């Protein structure tokens, strides 16, 4: 797997919310009008698209993405994607990397909510991104202002061509009413709705990678900061998917060997009101959920007895001392209700 590098021009929503069109989370390309040159499933791969000179298959030049044939009739091509989880859309990246003379001049996005099964001829689609112009070999980020939950996306390209990657950033909408209140849940897992609020540095790896399922596949699949050359420590703030009482914490430094943090700690609080920007200042004074712990390289650290009893919390601040890389973070706890202030 290739290391997933950061796009310095990516907007905030792409750092904060999960890509629900990620095949690793369970997203799937269901059907399309045509994928003669490059199959639609490639568009959901989590790795950046690559270009391999001289690689051809039976239909022509091999391209890393979804590519339809040249349309010789009226109309346009489309692809339907089932998101990994139903969610409230925040933004999209239509990526045409390596498509130069064969990218679509324009695209639009529709969405629907199907409670059970897949869309059919009777499904009502809502336009969430009107037609926008595309350029070749480029990332096209667009914020989406949607209030309702959607389960499926339909990407329309006008009239044909290739899209390397489709990223759909959204806040997962979980039905917690059906969850067992006595069971332990990973309350910051990306698929459950946990999301990144802020981080002071994400030079080598996104802090949102901490919330991904499974263990990291390589050093690029985690949160890694640059080497700190001044006093202090690095940190990130994470919002829980649901208020809860934490009983167990896992800090995984998988693949980080010469660059893992020396220590880590976690602060936490139950927050209501304010803004996410104001949380950065407030978080400095939150009580410790986990006092500073010495870390090891390439190791899963499990803490139970060390977890402090703070009651119900909604947000955490992970501190690493002084800098370095962490692959995954898990907070296992029971669901709880936040008392109104």
Automatic annotation (TrEMBL):
Any one biological process term the GO annotation gives: purine nucleobase metabolic process
Alphabetically list the UniProt keywords.
Hydrolase, Purine metabolism
Checking Pfam families in the record gives: Allantoicase
Which InterPro entries does its entry note?
Allantoicase (IPR005164), Allantoicase_dom (IPR015908), Galactose-bd-like_sf (IPR008979)
- Catalysis: reaction(s): allantoate + H2O = (S)-ureidoglycolate + urea
Pathway named in the protein's UniProt entry: Nitrogen metabolism; (S)-allantoin degradation; (S)-ureidoglycolate from allantoate (aminidohydrolase route): step 1/1
Residues annotated as domain Allantoicase: 26-171, 193-335
What are the recorded GO MF terms, alphabetically? allantoicase activity
- Its Enzyme Commission number(s) read 3.5.3.4
Checking Gene3D superfamilies in the record gives:
Galactose-binding domain-like
Keyword hit for Hydrolase: yes
Q: Which family does it belong to?
A: Belongs to the allantoicase family.
Q: Which HAMAP family match?
A: Allantoicase
Q: What is this protein called?
A: Probable allantoicase
Taxonomic source organism = Undibacterium oligocarboniphilum
Q: Which gene encodes it?
A: alc
